[in-house]
Amino acid sequence: MKLKNMILVAMFTSIVAALGILPPIALPFTPVPITAQTFGVMLAGAILGARLGGLSMGLFVLLVGIGVPILSGGRGGLPSLIGPSGGYILSWPIAAFIIGFLVDRYKERLKMWNMVLFNYVGGILFIYLGGITYLSFVSALSWQEAAISALVYIPGDSLKAVVAGVIALQLRKTAPVARFIKEQKAA
């Protein structure tokens, strides 16, 4: 892997870690808090593409797994990955990959609406599917009950999908990012 790609992977891992500085919002009816970190997952996939976006989130999950406290609220370690939030967190690498794959596939025809749609597909639908399913296995909730408890995240995640889409679309048009994307296409 080229040094530039390694730096970008590390940078987006750091961005998601920095978003963990914002405190989690605990809710009384679900053990999974609201955090800002899925915003970084969406940005990683939309800007870096499938391979590097997925790698950046894979590195993030690996760091969490070995105990680095980079999850919202200063959490880290295996308990964070096997606890109620684990399914959401473990789905981040694949979610970034999905977003990046869709963005890469439609890069010549990217508009605001499909950038937001790609963030919804990977950054909301896929993460919810993994998180809800995992939560139903590790808690006393049925899949339907876990899904109903996840409805509270939709407004905030929808806002994140739109803002990440706007930022990613603008960044993909700037000279350094556009040059990076062209180099990735050639490689």
By secondary-structure content and strand pairing, the structural class works out as mainly alpha
The strands making up the biggest β-sheet line up spatially as 1-2
The first-level CATH class is given as Mainly Alpha
Rg result = 16 Å
The largest β sheet comes out as:
2 strands, antiparallel
- What is the fold-level CATH name, i.e. the topology? Arp2/3 complex 21 kDa subunit ARPC3
Q: What CATH architecture do you see?
A: Orthogonal Bundle
> What assembly state would you assign to the polypeptide chains in this entry?
single chain
The total count of helices amounts to: 10
Low-pLDDT stretches are: none
Tally of distinct domains: 1
Classify the beta-strand content into a percent band.
under 5%
Protein name: Biotin transporter
Membrane topology: Multi-pass membrane protein
Subcellular location: Cell membrane
Pfam families: BioY
